[in-house]
Inverse folding.
C-alpha cells in the first residue's frame, strides 16, 4: 500500500512526508517553510532526494524511513528493538510493511505499519501545531501470539546535513543545565539519564545547528524528551549520510513486556526548528507549554517560602512574624516548607507520615493559615509524597512498601527511601493523606519535592522506574481532578525533575536548590530553553547564599529574579526596616514587569563578552520590553561592549530608561565602578528600535556580579 505525499506548513516550518518505492513513509523535509506545493511538486521533491546505490551496499536505494530499521539496511541506532522470550524461531527485528497514512486536516499525521510475521504493529504520530512545533511519538502493539519484551522504542527525526554543531546541557545538584558544544561528527552522541527521575544532568534539549549559532542567529533543530523517568536522547550522523535526532524512554531489561494485544506508547518528542537561533527554538516550546495550562497566562503571585528563613524551626509566633513581614514587602503567597508533619524535627524522620504534628501545631495549621489569609496572602505547603524515612510510622507499619531491588534496602540518600507507588495500598495511602490535607485546610499550592535518585529498585521482579513514573503522573492527575484550583510546584532536590510531561501536570518548577544569583544567571538562561519564565521559580535569598557561601548585593539578587516567577526565601522578620523597604522596591518593580512574564517573549542578547549576560522580556506586540544586563565575572574590557536589546520593532521608536531601584539597603551598597554619570540615571532617551537592536546601548563600567534593569516603551 502506498500513499500520496503530504505537506504540513505552519508558522515558518514545513514537514514533508513522502513514500519510498516500497511505500515506507519518509520525512523528506523538516525545516524552513517551503511555500505552497502541489501534488506534482511534492512528488518531484521525493524524486529529487532519491538515494543512490554505492558499491558494497544493498542492491537498491536505501531509504531511511520514519522508523529506521536494521532489516532494511540502516546501520545506525534502530528505532525498535525487542525479543520474544522463549521463542525458538521467527524474526527478531521487525520489518514494517503495509503502511498507511491518515491526515486529520488539523496538523496531525498518523502513520501505521505492521510486520505480521514478527508480530509488531507500529503507529507513529506527527503533529505540527499552530506555532510550528513538531510533536512525535511511537506506539507499539503486540500482534503476535506470545509476549513481546521491548528493549527500546525510539522516535527519530531527521535534520539537515548543514547542522554540523551540537549543543546539549549537563549539570549536577545546584549547578543544573550548563551548556556544552562540540562539532557533530560521524557517530552517535548519546545522553542517557538513569536517575529514576529526569535528572540534574538531563540534557533538557539537544540542539543541532549550523556552526556558531547563538541566541538570536543561526539555523538549528532542537528536541526535548517529554518524560519524567529514565530516558535517552541522541544525535547520530551515519557514514551513509543520515543525520537524525532521536529519543525515547530508557527501558531496563524486562521492564515493559507486552502480552498479545497490549500496547506501549513512547514519550512525546518535541521538535523545534528555528532559523533565528536558540530564542526562536525556545519560543515554539514556550507556546506549547503555555497552552497546557490556563494558569500559565494568569498573574503569578509573589511567593515567600519559609525554608531558608526558618528551616525546621516551626513556631506559630515565629512564622506569624515572618508572614507579617512577607505581607509588608508585598508577598501574595506564603509557603510553609519542610518540618510541619509528624515527628519532623530534622531530615532523618517523619517522611510518609502526612499528618500535622500536634506537638508543634496543637490546633493544627488553622491558626497559621488564618493569620496568612488575614494578611491578604494565600497558603502553600511543602510535601514529599514519594519518599519515606525508615524512622517513620509508615515504614514501621509497612516495610514492604519501600521500593527495593533485593532483600536489603537500597543505600540511603538524605536519610530516605522511596515509597513503591505501584503497590495499590501505598498509592492509596499517599493519595488519601494528601486529599485529607487539602480537604481539611485551605491550601492553594503544594511544593512537591523528590529528594533522591531511584537506585537498586524493582517491582514484581522487573525494573521499577517505568511503573513508578506512571504512578506519579496518575497521582498528580487525580489530585488536580479532585482540586482543580490547586497549584503544584515540581521540585526534585531543586531541578532534578524538569520535563514537559511533569509540566503538563504542574504549574511551576524549582530549577535549582541554589539561590546563589551568580549560578542562577546561568542556569535560568538554559532552563528557559524549554521552560517559559512564569513557570520558573526564582527567589531573592539572603545576602549569603545558603549553598555556596557567596555574598551578593540585594540589587544583584533582585535583578536575577525579576523576570521570572519571583519569590523570597529570606527571614524578612529579622532584617531592618530599611532592608524590608528595599525588598519592597524590588517586589513593586516585579509587579510592573509581571504582566509580560506569562505572555511576553523571552530573549537573550548574544554579547561578545561572556562576562555579560543579557535577558529580556518583550511584549507580544513589541510595545514594551524589560531587560536585565548582569555581569557574571570581571568584564574583558574596561568599558563593556554595547548591549543590544533584541526583540523590538525596528520601525518603531522607544523611550529607553534605567529602572534599577537605587537601594536603601546596606546590602545594596555595591562598589561603584564608574565615576561618571550614565544615561541610566536620566529620565530616558528616545531612540529607534533599529538602533537599540543593532547598535545597542552603552552600559557604565560594571563591577563583577552587578546588574542593571532597562525598560523600553514604544512612543510611536
Amino acid at each position: 500500500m502506498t500513499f500520496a505525499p503530504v505537506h504540513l506548513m505552519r508558522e515558518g516550518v514545513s514537514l514533508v512526508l513522502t513514500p519510498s518505492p516500497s511505500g515506507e513513509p519518509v520525512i523528506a523535509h523538516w525545516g524552513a517553510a517551503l511555500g505552497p506545493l502541489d501534488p506534482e511538486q511534492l512528488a518531484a521533491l521525493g524524486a529529487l532526494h532519491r538515494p543512490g546505490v554505492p558499491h558494497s551496499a544493498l542492491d537498491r536505494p536505501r531509504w531511511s524511513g520514519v522508523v529506521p530499521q536494521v532489516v532494511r539496511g540502516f546501520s545506525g541506532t534502530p528505532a525498535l528493538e525487542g525479543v520474544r522470550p522463549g521463542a525458538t524461531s521467527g524474526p527478531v527485528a521487525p520489518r514494517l510493511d503495509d503502511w498507511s497514512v491518515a491526515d486529520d486536516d488539523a496538523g496531525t499525521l498518523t502513520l501505521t505499519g505492521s510486520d505480521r510475521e514478527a508480530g509488531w504493529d507500529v503507529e507513529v504520530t506527527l503533529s505540527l501545531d499552530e506555532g510550528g512545533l513538531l510533536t512525535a511519538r511511537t506506539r507499539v502493539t503486540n500482534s503476535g501470539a506470545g509476549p513481546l519484551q521491548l528493549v527500546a522504542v525510539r522516535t527519530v527525526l531527521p535534520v539537515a546535513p548543514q547542522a554540523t554543531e551540537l549543543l546539549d546541557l549537563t549539570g549536577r545538584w545546584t549547578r543544573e543545565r550548563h551548556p556544552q558544544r562540540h562539532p557533530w561528527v560521524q557517530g552517535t552522541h548519546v545522553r542517557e539519564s538513569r536517575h529514576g527521575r529526569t535528572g540534574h544532568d538531563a540534557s533538557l534539549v539537544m540542539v543541532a545547528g549550523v556552526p556558531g549559532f547563538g541566541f538570536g542567529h543561526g539555523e538549528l533543530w532542537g528536541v526535548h524528551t517529554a518524560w519524567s523517568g529514565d530516558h535517552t536522547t541522541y544525535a547520530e550522523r551515519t557514514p551513509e549520510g543520515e543525520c537524525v535526532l532521536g529519543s525515547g524512554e530508557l527501558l531496563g531489561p524486562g521492564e515493559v513486556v507486552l502480552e498479545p494485544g497490549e500496547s506501549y506508547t513512547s514519550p512525546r518528542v518535541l521538535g523545534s526548528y528555528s532559523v533565528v537561533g536558540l530564542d526562536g527554538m525556545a519560543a515554539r516550546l514556550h507556546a506549547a507549554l503555555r497552552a497546557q495550562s490556563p494558569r500559565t497566562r494568569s498573574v503569578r503571585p509573589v511567593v515567600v517560602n519559609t525554608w531558608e528563613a526558618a528551616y525546621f524551626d516551626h513556631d506559630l509566633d515565629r512564622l506569624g512574624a515572618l508572614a507579617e513581614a512577607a505581607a509588608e514587602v508585598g508577598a501574595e503567597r506564603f509557603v510553609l516548607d519542610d518540618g510541619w508533619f509528624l515527628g519532623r524535627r530534622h531530615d532523618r524522620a517523619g517522611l510518609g507520615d502526612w499528618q500535622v504534628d500536634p506537638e508543634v501545631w496543637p490546633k493544627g495549621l488553622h491558626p497559621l493559615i488564618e493569620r496568612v489569609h488575614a494578611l491578604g496572602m494565600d497558603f502553600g505547603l511543602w510535601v514529599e509524597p514519594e519518599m519515606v524515612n525508615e524512622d517513620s510510622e509508615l515504614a514501621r507499619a509497612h516495610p514492604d512498601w519501600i521500593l527495593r531491588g533485593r532483600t536489603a534496602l537500597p543505600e540511603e540518600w538524605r536519610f530516605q527511601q522511596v515509597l513503591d507507588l505501584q503497590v495499590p495500598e501505598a498509592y492509596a495511602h499517599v493519595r488519601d493523606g494528601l486529599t485529607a490535607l487539602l480537604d481539611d485546610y485551605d491550601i492553594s499550592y503544594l511544593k512537591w519535592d523528590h529528594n533522591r535518585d531511584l537506585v537498586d529498585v524493582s517491582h514484581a521482579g522487573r525494573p521499577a522506574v517505568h511503573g513508578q513514573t506512571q504512578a506519579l503522573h496518575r497521582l498528580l492527575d487525580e489530585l488536580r481532578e479532585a482540586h482543580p484550583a490547586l497549584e503544584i510546584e515540581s521540585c526534585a532536590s531543586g531541578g532534578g525533575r524538569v520535563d514537559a510531561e511533569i509540566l503538563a501536570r504542574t504549574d511551576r518548577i524549582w530549577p535549582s536548590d541554589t539561590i546563589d544569583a551568580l549560578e542562577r544567571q546561568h542556569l535560568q538562561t538554559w532552563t528557559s530553553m524549554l521552560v517559559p519564565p512564569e513557570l520558573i521559580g526564582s527567589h531573592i535569598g539572603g545576602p549569603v547564599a545558603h549553598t555556596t557561601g557567596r555574598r551578593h548585593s540585594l540589587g544583584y539578587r533582585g535583578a536575577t529574579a525579576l523576570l521570572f516567577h519571583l519569590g523570597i526565601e529570606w527571614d524578612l522578620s529579622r532584617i531592618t526596616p530599611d532592608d524590608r523597604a528595599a525588598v519592597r522596591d524590588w517586589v513593586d518593580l516585579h509587579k510592573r514587569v509581571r504582566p509580560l512574564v506569562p505572555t511576553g517573549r523571552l530573549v537573550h542578547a548574544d554579547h561578545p563578552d561572556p562576562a555579560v549576560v543579557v535577558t529580556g522580556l518583550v511584549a507580544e506586540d513589541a510595545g514594551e520590553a524589560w531587560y536585565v544586563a548582569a555581569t557574571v565575572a570581571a568584564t574583558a574590557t574596561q568599558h563593556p561592549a554595547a548591549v543590544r536589546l533584541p526583540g523590538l520593532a525596528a520601525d518603531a521608536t522607544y523611550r529607553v530608561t534605567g529602572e534599577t531601584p537605587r537601594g536603601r539597603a546596606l546590602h545594596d551598597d555595591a562598589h561603584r565602578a564608574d565615576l561618571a554619570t550614565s544615561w541610566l540615571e536620566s529620565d530616558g532617551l528616545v531612540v529607534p528600535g533599529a538602533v537599540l537592536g543593532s547598535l545597542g546601548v552603552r552600559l557604565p563600567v560594571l563591577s563583577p556580579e552587578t546588574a542593571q534593569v532597562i525598560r523600553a516603551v514604544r512612543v510611536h
User: Anything to note?
Assistant: Residues 465-482 form the longest helix (18 residues). The CA atoms of residues 673 and 703 lie 6 Å apart.
